[in-house]
Amino acid sequence: MGQKKKILITWGLWYIGSHTATVFIENWYDVIIVDNLSNSHESALEWIKAISWKTPKFYELDLRNYSDLDAVFEKHASDIALVIHFAAKKAVWESCQDPFLYYDHNILGTINLLKVMNKHHINQIIFSSSATVYDAENLLPPFSETDKTKTTNPYGTTKLVIENLLRDMVMQKWFSAVALRYFNPIWAHPSHILWENPKWVPTNLLPFLLKVAKWEIEKLSVFGDDYETEDWTCIRDYIHVMDVAEAHYAAAKYLFDRIEINETSEMYTADPVFEICNIWTWYGKSVAEMIWIVETIVDKEIPYEIVARRPWDVAISLANPLKAKQLLNWEATRTVVQWVEDAWLYLNNEKRK
Ligand code: WQD
Predict the structure, then answer these.
(1) Which of 155, 227, 249, 346 is catalytic?
(2) Which atom of ligand 1 is the closest one to the Cα of 222?
(3) Residue of 130, 223, 241 with the most ligand 1 atoms within 8 Å of its CB, for mutation
(4) Which residue from 95, 221, 242, 252 could staple onto 155, CB 3.0 to 4.6 Å apart?
(5) What is the mean pLDDT of the chain?
(6) pLDDT for the residue 3
(7) Domain annotation for the chain: domains and CATH numbers
(8) Using one digit for the tens of pLDDT, what is the confidence trace for 2-11?
(9) Quick check: pTM over 0.90?
């Protein structure tokens, strides 16, 4: 892979980004983080250092600001081997209320990133995509990467547009790209000092459930108990965030293995690729099962009420992770007990406060 040992991570202080940063640092890469701190905290730098013994270089900037981004690449481009792109707004409900906001952040931000990468001859990217791009209402789960896509909300559409943009750039031989489609990464770093730390009340199931377990929120609202599943609640494929972080490392290794170095020491890929991989576990859990699992681990009853369905929810969202195993040699390894324990121990960790 030549001399380049720096990885640039957009939104590397945010949840999955910060966990991914620890994996790369522990594997002897230098990490540069760009993050606008809109839903993350600068203190994540300390936690990353506490885990991996090295503080990443950090630039506070918004990808929509081309010149700020260009300035970072001017400084570091000669050492950057790869970009991992997480930066995106990601609340489905918010995207339905304000599609412009999502197109602006997610698409304009990505176009700027790709332009700057192209200008500075950095030609490898791992993109954080989503299982929300699958035509879930008409497909039989588990979904495979070749299955039909169809989005039901602006958030999902922005992910699909970016996948298509990357595919086009790879066809023009500008880039190699791996898009990882995942959906419900949860739980915490096993050190119990790093986790999702959003700036506002979380809307995802697990953070919400644990806030109820800690009596910070009165009760959970279960969105619908009339789905065609065994216990009538929705099924999702939840996955440990460290499994997701390690999938990014596996994708990076896959891309690095394809690199060659020319006579002027420049890295290039003779045969650019665009690959999409599901990053899932195979094992779905329903909302009712998740409540039960959390109750068992925290040894408390979780108060909840059944409320109306959310308009965008589908009954079952599960994907087939076989391609990731074959292409990237990655598979999820953590168990459900580890998932819940890591998150619960994080929330009760005095060191973190
Ligand atoms: C999980 C299940 C809810 C909260 C995720 C991300 C989103 C996007 C798409 C990546 C569903 C139920 C939840 C609650 C509940 N990310 N639920 N009460 O919808 O699968 O979407 O993937 O692309 O950003 O959030 O995740 O955690 O919101 O919901 O009953 O208070 O829990 O109906 O079945 P979801 P989620």
Answers:
(1) 155
(2) 30
(3) 223
(4) 95
(5) 90
(6) 57
(7) 6-352 (3.40.50.720)
(8) 556 899 999 9
(9) yes
pLDDT over threshold 80, residue 165: yes
Q: Which residues line ligand 1 (CB under 6 A)?
A: 90-92, 130, 132, 183-184, 203-205, 208, 220-223, 234, 236, 287, 310, 313
Helix/strand/coil (H, E, C) string of the chain? CCCCCEEEEECCCCHHHHHHHHHHHHCCCEEEEEECCCCCCCCHHHHHHHHHCCCCEEEECCCCCHHHHHHHHHHHHHHEEEEEECCCCCCHHHHHHCHHHHHHHHHHHHHHHHHHHHHCCCCEEEEEEEHHHECCCCCCCCECCCCCECCCCHHHHHHHHHHHHHHHHHHCCCCEEEEEEECEEECCCCCCCCCCCCCCCCCCHHHHHHHHHCCCCCCEEEECCCCCCCCCCCEECEEEHHHHHHHHHHHHHHHHHCCEECCCCCEECCCCCEEEEECCCCCCEEHHHHHHHHHHHHCCCCCEEEECCCCCCCCEECECCHHHHHHHCCCCCCCHHHHHHHHHHHHCCHHHC
